[in-house]
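CORE FACILITY INTAKE
Project code: CF-77B
Contact: R.S. (postdoc)
Sample description: multi-component assembly, two entities in total
Requested service: structural model of the whole complex
Turnaround: standard
Below are the sequence entries exactly as provided by the requester. Do not edit them.
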Amino acid sequence: MCRARHSYCGSKMKLTINGNEKDVANNLTVSGLLKELEIDPARVAVEVNLAIIKKALYEQQTLSDGDSVEIVNFVGGG
Amino acid sequence: MNDKLVINGIEFKSRLWVGTGKYKDFEETAKAIEASGADVVTVAVRRTNIFDNKSDNLLDYIDPKKFKILPNTAGCFTLEDALRYARLARETGVSDLIKIEVIGDKDTLFPDSCATLTATEILAKEGFTVLPYINDDPVMALRLVDAGAAAVMPLAAPIGSGLGIRNPYNLKIILEQAKVPIVVDAGVGTASDVAEAMELGCDAVLLNTAIAGAKDPVLMAGAMKHACIAGRMAYKAGRMPKKMYATASSPIEGML
């Protein structure tokens, strides 16, 4: 359910992904979001509102309007 | 000669460990790592680029089946951040190893010892193989071992400084007292620094900028590989004692 009273409520919700706001379909799962962003789940870790989501739960974990999502991967470092 | 490095039951093929930062591109990273002979590579945890997901991924160039991936908590200044990055790193599913790096000062990048100790204690209990980056502080090394560190990684000099081993005596004390593998991490500048660390008896050396910052990184990676092997062999062989005066190598007997 959208808590923000958007004009498009009922179809879309707003997420903050890696610091960027994005409109996505309501009831999108973590798995669905990664698919939409064309990101390979095997290469990343996902955090929703500071809680890490286990890979096994990507399919069932539904996102809510206003959620803050972080998607991280490995980059070069020492 | 059976001279395998084992940390927390994990067998390592190489005693030279390398970072993956600061390279021109992933291709150069892969070539340098290949030339270094390292089977452990460090990586950092950062936000995925969600706008350009077609760009290459580091793990496309460094196969986690071939290399041991050692994620770090670089860039973290607080205990909370270090724990967050460590847990995210593990959730990617490629490694239970973690290099704990909690920075206490932005100019020297010296570690925050208190936060490092607490992070080590918490993450070791959560089943991580914790490898903390620390100052060359023998007492801290012992505290970290008590807290569950699988190895300790004292710096040779500040990260990225290339100054070499500034306090070999402290490293020697750490080697004597801490009963876990000791990995010199950070500050190495060139091949002789790696050889020196290995000759002191360190179990491994972890470096990044010394290769990535060389004019020819791939050539330097090869130099580091040989220095590491040479230093280890010299340590195992046991060097001759140092003497103040000369001792002739050729016999006096039989001279005209």
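Facility notes:
- Strands of chain B lie at 5-7, 10-12, 16-19, 40-47, 68-71, 97-100, 129-134, 153-154, 183-185, 204-207.
- The interface with chain A takes residues 19-23, 26, 29, 42-48, 50-51, 53-54, 57-59, 69, 71-72, 74, 84, 87-94, 159-160, 186, 206-209 of chain B (CB under 8 Å).
Invoice: internal transfer
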